[in-house]
Amino acid sequence: MEKLWSSVLATVSAIGLVCNPVAAISIGVSPPRFELKLDQKKATTQIFKVVNRDSKPATFKIYLMGWTLDEKNQIKSVPPSEQSLAQWIIVNPLQFTLAPGKTQTVRFAVRPRVKTQPGEHRAFIFVEEIASGDDTSKKQGGNVGVKVVGRFGVAVYGYVGNVQRVAKLNDISVNTKSNPMTASFDISSQGNAYVRMNGQYTIWQAAKYPGANATKAIAEIEKPKPKLPDGVVVGGSLPKKPVLPDTRRQVILRLPNKLAPGNYVLDINGELNGVQIDKGIPFTVPQSTATTPQPRTQPNSNNSSRTIKIRPQSN
């Protein structure tokens, strides 16, 4: 059940495809992402499910938004137009109330109103939880204030024509001066659809590093206490933030803890849309920026999904 449902706090002010929740909200949505062909003759109905994981009844409403990613990889809303995927999506129901532990099936279909342009079209279907009137009503001149508890964004990608994902990994670098330390993946998306990484990273003590060709993916690396090879300090999953068509972006991996002074290698076992990434990036942690680590794995940063804080994965 934990694998099926995921929940993320969403607030209006901070937008990002993969978010760091400020606090958990009691909503689960599955699946968190859809990828659809829009040039089929007949539209098909899609479904996702919303579950109320709170101990009290909750009311939800649904709305849509077109989006893109800015230069800082933050989600930016796109004004509606006749070519907006959000304008073509029909959702039912648009509002509902769930008792504790209950599930609502939400159906949607994409019905373009004009001839669709080739390429990738994007929209979010937001499931917004609204606090009950008993908890948040504030009467001001006869008006009742409505408090939004959180939002969960279901990403919808629509494609017209042939989908071409063309990715280029320009560079990987490690910044030991940032807090926390980070690795930056310089990625270009040169096709007509987004690209993203998948796989694992590990940080090795340089003296025990066997070479990029000798390392392999580690089973269950996201568990609290995975079995790590001798010489591996820490490991986790690569960030799965998408790089949109015809853009070049820095995808940032936050390393989970500072390291003791010394020489290390950031080892990558992954792929970028089918192109293998098998690299070792040496780096040195100087005395002035180091602290003794408590080895642990990186918390799962996916999102799926791709779902949101609004900020709005998983994004």
TrEMBL record:
It comes from the Bacteria. Residues 285-315 have a biased composition (Polar residues). Transmembrane segments: none annotated. Residues 283-315 are annotated as: Disordered. InterPro entries: Ig-like_fold (IPR013783), PapD-like_sf (IPR008962). This is Molecular chaperone. The lineage of its organism: Bacteria, Bacillati, Cyanobacteriota, Cyanophyceae, Nostocales.
